[in-house]
UniProtKB/TrEMBL annotation:
<keyword id="KW-0662">Pyridine nucleotide biosynthesis</keyword>
<keyword id="KW-0436">Ligase</keyword>
<keyword id="KW-0808">Transferase</keyword>
<comment type="function">
    <text>Catalyzes the first step in the biosynthesis of NAD from nicotinic acid, the ATP-dependent synthesis of beta-nicotinate D-ribonucleotide from nicotinate and 5-phospho-D-ribose 1-phosphate.</text>
</comment>
<dbReference type="InterPro" id="IPR013785">
    <property type="entry name" value="Aldolase_TIM"/>
</dbReference>
<dbReference type="GO" id="GO:0005829">
    <property type="term" value="C:cytosol"/>
</dbReference>
<keyword id="KW-0597">Phosphoprotein</keyword>
<feature type="domain" description="Nicotinate/nicotinamide phosphoribosyltransferase">
    <location>
        <begin position="153"/>
        <end position="352"/>
    </location>
</feature>
<dbReference type="GO" id="GO:0047280">
    <property type="term" value="F:nicotinamide phosphoribosyltransferase activity"/>
</dbReference>
<dbReference type="Pfam" id="PF17767">
    <property type="entry name" value="NAPRTase_N"/>
</dbReference>
<dbReference type="InterPro" id="IPR007229">
    <property type="entry name" value="Nic_PRibTrfase-Fam"/>
</dbReference>
<dbReference type="InterPro" id="IPR040727">
    <property type="entry name" value="NAPRTase_N"/>
</dbReference>
<dbReference type="GO" id="GO:0034355">
    <property type="term" value="P:NAD+ biosynthetic process via the salvage pathway"/>
</dbReference>
<dbReference type="InterPro" id="IPR006405">
    <property type="entry name" value="Nic_PRibTrfase_pncB"/>
</dbReference>
<keyword id="KW-0328">Glycosyltransferase</keyword>
<dbReference type="InterPro" id="IPR036068">
    <property type="entry name" value="Nicotinate_pribotase-like_C"/>
</dbReference>
<feature type="domain" description="Nicotinate phosphoribosyltransferase N-terminal">
    <location>
        <begin position="7"/>
        <end position="132"/>
    </location>
</feature>
Length: 491
């Protein structure tokens, strides 16, 4: 089976590739950078994810005979020679990217793609699609993790996800951010994520009594019994029945693992459930809660003293319900002109949308003693101040008069080589390693950047050269515009 997703792109990419080919500019060397402009959910950080999927896509990136035939049917009537060019298409460029699980921020390059415009343009759509969705879900999961740091978190979202790919890769993104398990078996098989499951109301409904339903379940899976206790009456039927089953199990040397609450006042019910279980000596039986949970409800429930050990989170997480997309973009920052790589800029009436020109790198600047991140430092890739451990001037690009100098620091280059001349050079970490790395990343930041509400913004600072380049290019553009205006006036 061919898994090529070469056509998983917008038509305008194919049209631009065609137009470049017709103009014989398709081999022009270009550099693109992917980044987002606004922190999702008003969070203080985002959790980068999507790289594994990008690599999977890149490894299969070929136009199949079917793809070529389909392109041949388009109303644009692309030349046959162009289609032949596509048939021979191979990505021969370079990709650098931030590692999955890294805490990332607005306006810093997360993925940098360098190569012929023919190839760099094609991959924009898929790359953003993967990065935007997975980073969004990992960030949402991380917010949930922050309010339930010591509890078990289960991802239950598949039935509500925006189709199969979203549930699969969303489960993986949630696991990176600290969830412990998923209910999605395919995600478990494919990514080795631990899987967990209780049972549905349908199980209880398919028996004449709740007690019989619980008993039959316990008989079948004596080591894995978590009983859903809210089908009829949680306090008067569900929990008492579950307690009886626990006693029957203990006579066989087995243990009831837990009960699940899925409706009603979860604070009140979990407190009452805990009392009833404890009174029966069932101190180890865990209480699982589910029902449209998110970070706000979980935090609220905790504040009310809810006695929940494990949270099943579905819809709100997998659909990132309060912010359904991350606005990551992919912008041309440099192109080759007469054998030299020259910066490019996109001017916009909206100052936030004016791009930062030039091929860039991003370094995480770390306090050497405290081992906490101070700022991210975006500089031109040609600069070597950080590598040479030079004193750095850190300033806010929006308020350049606010600045400080750092001379004692550790620095980590965040963009890692992934592809060189089309070859995968990245040693892909195991998912467990990515998850552990993410936890280390969280520890690298002061709590004020991590809090759910009104987090202190973490600084993403630009080097003087990178900032000056942007100013100069804007100035050049303004002067050019003025010249044109004067010329028009004279005519
Ligand atoms: N004590 C609580 N404080 C705040 N939110 C709660 C509390 N208990 C439950 N919730 C949340 O309130 C919402 C209750 O929604 P809703 O009224 O639709 O559920 P329900 O009627 O209890 O159950 P069902 O899903 O079967 O309709 C859920 O999102 C749930 O997680
Ligand atoms: O609420 P979520 O966070 O999406 O978690 C998954 C939900 O899926 C299941 O029930 P389902 O929603 O299918 O039915 P129910 O609402 O009637 O319980 C489960 O009982 C959870 O409530
Ligand atoms: O295992 C569960 O309890 C479960 C799984 C998916 C959705 N809701 C609940």
């Amino acid at each position: 089976m061919n898994h090529s997703m070469a056509l998983h792109t917008d038509k305008y990419q194919i049209n631009m590739m065609y137009a470049h080919w017709k103009n014989d500019t398709h081999n022009q060397h270009t550099v693109f950078e992917a980044f987002f402009r606004k922190m999702p959910f008003g969070n203080g950080y985002a959790v980068f994810a999507g790289l594994e999927r990008i690599i999977e896509y890149m490894e299969q990136l070929r136009f199949t005979d079917d793809d070529i035939a389909y392109l041949g049917e388009q109303e644009e009537q692309y030349d046959a020679a162009f289609l032949e060019e596509l048939r021979n298409f191979r990505f021969n460029g370079h990709i650098d990217a931030v590692k999955e699980g890294t805490l990332v921020f607005a306006n810093e390059p997360l993925v940098r793609v360098e190569g012929r415009v023919f190839e760099t343009q094609l991959i924009e759509t898929a790359l953003l699609n993967f990065m935007n969705f997975q980073t969004l879900i990992a960030t949402k999961a991380s917010r949930i993790k922050r309010v339930a740091k010591h509890d078990i978190l289960m991802e239950f979202g598949t039935r509500r996800a925006q189709e199969a790919d979203a549930s699969l890769w969303g489960a993986r993104a949630a696991y990176i951010a600290g969830f412990h398990a998923t209910s999605n078996m395919l995600a478990g098989k494919r990514f080795s994520i631990p899987t967990k499951g209780t049972h549905a109301h349908a199980w209880v409904q398919s028996f004449t009594s709740e007690h019989q339903a619980f008993e039959s379940f316990a008989k079948a899976l004596p080591d894995h019994v978590t009983l859903l206790v809210d089908t009829y009456d949680t306090l008067h039927s569900g929990i008492p029945n579950a307690i009886q089953i626990a006693k029957q199990l203990s006579e066989k040397g087995k243990k009831l693992q837990g009960i699940r609450l899925d409706s009603g006042d979860l604070a009140y019910l979990s407190i009452e459930a805990r009392k009833m279980l404890d009174e029966a000596g069932l101190y180890d039986v865990r209480i699982v809660a589910s029902n449209d949970l998110d970070e706000y409800t979980i935090a609220d429930l905790k504040e009310q003293g809810a006695r929940v050990d494990s949270w099943g989170v579905g819809t709100q997480l997998i659909t990132a319900a309060d912010q359904p997309s991350l606005g990551g973009v992919y912008k041309l920052v440099a192109r080759e002109i007469n054998g030299r790589l020259e910066p490019t800029i996109k001017i916009s009436a909206n100052p936030e949308k004016v791009t930062a020109p030039g091929k860039k790198d991003v370094y995480r600047i770390i306090h050497p003693k405290k081992q906490k991140a101070i700022a991210d430092y975006v500089c031109l890739a040609s600069e070597s101040d950080v590598e040479r451990k030079q004193k750095l001037k850190l300033f806010d690009p929006l308020h350049p008069y606010i600045h400080k100098y750092v001379d004692q620091y550790e620095a980590e280059k965040l963009l890692k080589p992934i592809y060189r001349s089309g070859q995968l050079v990245y040693d892909r970490p195991l998912l467990e390693e990515i998850r552990a790395y993410h936890e280390q990343q969280i520890n690298l930041f002061w709590p004020e950047h991590l809090r759910k509400k009104n987090p202190e913004p973490f600084h993403v600072d630009y080097s003087t050269k990178a900032w000056q380049l942007k100013r100069d290019m804007i100035e050049m553009y303004v002067q050019e515009k003025e010249k044109l205006r004067l010329m028009r006036q004279e005519e």
